[in-house]
Amino acid sequence: MIEDLILTNLAINEKYSRKVLPFIDSAYFSTKSHKITLKMIKDHIERYNVNPTKTSLVVDLEEMDNISEDDFNSIKNLITGFQVDDDVEIDWLADATEKFCQ
To answer: Which residue among 14, 19, 36, 42 is least packed, with the fewest CB closer than 10 Å?
Structure first.
């Protein structure tokens, strides 16, 4: 749950991603699909200096040829499930992320 919440907000919440992205490492995530998703988000932000859209992430995913079908489906489901949650408290989420990373 927390891994999905972190990835969702890294992708769609600019204020949160600017605050925590430099400190997030793929080693903190338990599944290969979460690690790949994190790399996709980081790569996009580093290249374009903006948060990715769900569409851009899915297109990037579809261009990958070195992942299994299971990982592809898992990542695609994760990305398409990203939703803006206007009620999320950035400071709370940053604290929860820090605890997760420890």
So the answer is: 14
Phi-psi region of 49 (alpha: psi -120 to 50; beta: other; left: phi over 0): left
Alpha helix stretches (DSSP H) within the chain: 2-12, 14-20, 32-48, 54-62, 69-80, 90-101
Residue 1 contacts residue 8 (beta carbons within 8 Å) = no
23: DSSP letter: G
**Dist. CA 12–CA 82, nearest whole Å:** 8
The two tokens of residue 32 are 């290969």
| Residues 4-17 pLDDT 10s | 999 999 999 999 99
Which contiguous run of DSSP H or E holds residue 69?
Answer: helix 69-80
pLDDT over threshold 80, residue 27: yes
Asked whether the CA dihedral 53, 56, 62, 63 is positive or negative, the reply is negative
Residue 68 makes CB contacts below 8 A (sequence gap 6+) with none
